[in-house]
Design a protein that fits this description.
single chain; about 775 residues; alpha+beta; five-stranded antiparallel sheet; five-stranded mixed sheet; 12 strands; about 65% helix; about 10% strand; binds adenosine-5'-diphosphate
Length: about 775
């Protein structure tokens, strides 16, 4: 519940705070109003009681009249129409009283329930006058008991209460006087004076009560009522009162003073006078009651207006307070928001000295301090470190931070100034070093370039300027491109090389000062500073002469190849003839003849010459791309074993085959044999001091690998890469071993044409192993 209240917005909270007392006020007002209303109802009830009393009195009157007519009818059998008319009047009043909810069923307990039966009997003249008198008198007496004197519970009703009391007493006086009057009339009418004493004895109680009501009336009634009453008693009612006093004093009826009719008239006047006084009293009461009623009504209206007014004022005050608090707090919120975003210069305009006013002043103080600090910070920003910053205390975090910041910035500024002078000094040193570098660079025999990381030339040396005829400034940026050959520009090699951030070499043509394009070797390296690429530095060397020399060499080599091709072709035919004639000569000479051994020697030399010519022819075929391969399925095991057998017939070396895989390859038998025989011949030739050669063959990764190992002179590392080039021969024992340096070149070519590879492993002085591999079928 408390949490829900906490989460409510402030205006709602204030409304609730205002609403609770307002509702309480409304409740109290309502209670007060209802209380007043109740008072009014009370007086209304009182008026009803008075009305009821009046009606009861009227009923008593009517019954008394009816009693008289019924009595006369019973005695004299006269006045029947009057009796019936009176009965009708009596019924009218009874019907009226019956409507009163408080008197519902009153006939049952006031003997009136027997009225109809009595009337029936008396109208039929079947009742004695005494019975008629008794019934009516008893009924009237009982009905008079219904009267209640109301006591008003309202202010200033004392007089009214006295009036009410006197009306009640008057009513009793009239009732009792009526009883006495009727009984006396009865005696006078019947003239039964001898029973007069008994009658008076019977009525003496009634007379005593009648007298006490008279005394009570005089004691308790207001002055004017007493005065009126006394006046009646002493004037109009005097004969009646005197007669009664005398009769009850002597306890005898004076039959001479009044006839029955005179008495009825006389006493009737007295009753009439008293009744008119009673009516006057009732009127006074009614007037006063109406006045009270009106007063209550007016008070009620005024009260209602006052209540509404008070409520409105109350709500207005509460609403005004809520609005003013909300407005002040909104102002403070806006101010706090401005402070939060660092906007100075608040205008809160709150002058009250309450907690809100104090809060506003605190906020304004924060703003003023912020402004001071902001101005100080601005001065510090401008570099004015002399500005005074005074924190508000040890806990003023912002003030202390700005002070600390000022001190640190001051120190930093000083350090920066020091660093700047140091930097200046370093810059001067760098400039000196740069000019030194340029002097050196200008003295070097080749051209030098420097490019920045965007590919723009930032430096060229004197040699470049001399070579191209472009000035230093002309060469900077992309100006150097003016000297580049159009083909070089088209190829865009420099741009690609620069983008690679790697060292690069290229041969390019540049136009020299005479307008002549020269070949230049460009070598450049990227420059990194703390791993950050900063550009390239490169040298350019004019290599036109070298290139021309190389070209001449190539031409010469081509001519050599041409010569060798022609020579070997030309030699081939006479050599074949020489070989055939020598063989014929050998066959025609006796073996013991000296010429026979010469012929054998001649054949041996012709064989070597033939191999030489064949090798040269192979080279010329390879060069012209005319080497023809007749490929077929070959069993490597058979090929190796047959070749080794043939080799062993003519060689002193013993060849052992460690392993020979019986796998097939697709190849030209004579060419593969040529490769293998060449390797065996070399192994024997370059291991003159050894007597064995090891051959191995195995399958690996889909290839058959064949190796030939000797234990001879071996090969230096520097020679290994060159061995497979045309005419290459190692310098080692160059003249000791015969040869042209073509065997490995031709072998390499043949293996390559079979999608294979040829390589060597060797330890100088220990021997060499030549390998070649061919894809297995
Ligand atoms: P050559 O006819 O000169 O032997 P090759 O092309 O067969 O021509 O060999 C080229 C050169 O490789 C040889 O001159 C020799 O120096 C070197 N060479 C070849 N085989 C061997 C080997 N088994 N041991 C040492 N050196 C060798």
């Amino acid at each position: 519940m408390i949490n829900i209240f906490k989460r409510l917005p402030l205006p709602l909270k204030l409304i609730l705070i205002g609403l609770v007392p307002s509702l309480f006020l409304v409740y109290l007002s309502l209670q007060f109003y209802l209380f007043e209303k109740q008072k009014y109802n009370l007086s209304k009830e009182n008026i009803e009681v008075i009305d009821r009393s009046t009606m009861i009195n009227r009923l008593i009157d009517q019954l008394q009249e009816e009693r008289r007519f019924a009595y006369e009818y019973a005695l004299k059998k006269e006045g029947y129409p009057e009796l019936l008319a009176q009965q009708h009047y009596t019924d009218t009043v009874i019907t009226h009283l019956e409507k009163d909810s408080d008197l519902k069923g009153f006939e049952n307990y006031t003997l009136l329930d027997g009225l109809a039966a009595i009337r029936k009997k008396s109208n039929a003249h079947k009742m004695t006058a005494g019975d008629v008198m008794n019934y009516y008198t008893t009924a009237i007496f009982r009905i008079s008991m219904l009267e209640v004197t109301p006591q008003l519970q309202i202010a200033n009703a004392r007089l009214l209460n006295r009036e009410l009391h006197s009306a009640r007493s008057m009513s009793q006086i009239i009732t009792y006087l009526g009883i006495l009057r009727s009984n006396i009339y009865n005696v006078l009418y019947t003239r039964q004076f001898k029973y007069g004493n008994g009658t008076l004895q019977g009525l003496s109680g009634v007379y005593m009560v009648f007298s006490t009501y008279q005394v009570e009336f005089k004691e308790k009634s207001p002055g004017d009522a007493v005065r009126d009453y006394k006046h009646i008693i002493e004037n109009e009612a005097k004969p009646t009162m005197d007669y009664l006093t005398k009769s009850f004093k002597t306890m005898q009826f004076d039959s001479t003073t009044y006839t029955d009719t005179q008495w009825w008239k006389l006493s009737g006047d007295a009753v009439e006078q008293l009744r008119s006084e009673q009516t006057r009293i009732w009127n006074t009461i009614n007037q006063q009651l109406n006045a009270i009623k009106n007063n209550v009504h007016r008070n009620e209206a005024i009260l209602l207006v006052l209540l509404v007014l008070a409520l409105a004022i109350c709500i207005a005050i509460i609403s005004g307070t809520i609005i003013s608090i909300t407005r002040i707090l909104t102002g403070l919120r806006v101010a706090a928001e401005k402070i939060a975003i660092g906007e100075p210069g608040l205008n809160l305009g709150i002058e009250s000295d309450d907690v809100v006013g104090k809060l506003a002043r605190s906020v304004a103080l924060i703003d003023a301090n912020n402004q001071l600090l902001a101005e100080a910070a601005d001065e510090i920003r401008k570099g004015n470190f002399d500005v005074v910053v005074t924190p508000r205390g040890a806990s003023d975090v912002l003030g202390n931070s700005i002070l600390q910041m000022k001190n640190e910035l001051h120190r930093n500024a000083e350090e920066k100034a020091e660093q700047e002078s140091e930097l200046q000094r370093l810059l001067t040193a760098v400039k000196a070093s740069e000019s030194h570098f340029r002097q050196i660079a200008d003295q070097t025999p080749f051209m030098i370039w420097q490019f920045n990381n965007r590919g723009k030339a930032v430096y060229v040396n004197k040699q470049w300027i001399d070579f191209t005829g472009l000035s230093f400034e002309e060469s900077l940026g992309s100006g150097w491109v003016k000297a580049l050959h159009p083909d070089g520009i088209k190829e865009g090699n420099f741009i690609k090389s620069f983008a690679g951030l790697r060292p690069f070499r290229s041969k390019s043509r540049f136009k020299n000062v005479n307008g002549e394009f020269r070949w230049v070797l460009v070598q450049a390296n990227p420059i990194f500073n703390n791993n950050k690429f900063e550009g390239f530095i490169g040298s350019l060397t004019d290599i036109t002469d070298q290139i021309l020399a190389q070209q001449a060499l190539v031409d010469l080599m081509d001519k050599k190849d041409e010569f060798l091709t022609i020579a070997s072709h030309e030699l081939k035919t006479p050599l074949t003839s020489i070989k055939a004639y020598t063989q014929l000569l050998q066959k025609s000479i006796d073996q013991n003849d000296k010429a026979y051994s010469l012929a054998v020697k001649n054949l041996h030399h012709v064989g070597r010459l033939e191999k030489l010519v064949n090798d040269l022819l192979d080279v010329s075929r390879i060069n012209s791309g005319q080497m023809v391969y007749k490929k077929e399925s070959l069993n490597i095991k058979d090929l190796l074993e047959q070749s080794v057998d043939g080799f062993m017939d003519v060689s002193k070396h013993r060849v052992s085959i460690i392993n020979a895989e019986a796998v097939s390859i697709n190849g030209d038998r004579s060419r593969i044999e040529q490769v293998f025989n060449n390797l065996l011949n070399n192994a024997a030739k370059y291991s003159p001091d050894a007597d064995r050669i090891v051959v191995n063959s195995y399958v690996k990764d889909g290839y058959v690998v064949i190796s030939v190992q000797d234990f001879g002179i071996g090969i230096d590392d520097k020679d290994k890469g060159m061995l497979f080039q045309k005419f290459y021969r190692t310098q080692k024992d160059f003249y000791k071993f015969q040869g042209l340096g073509l065997g490995l070149f031709i072998s390499g070519e043949i293996v390559a044409r079979h999608d294979g590879e040829l390589w060597v492993e060797s330890v100088p002085g220990k021997g060499s192993t030549f390998y070649f591999k061919l894809p297995r079928e």
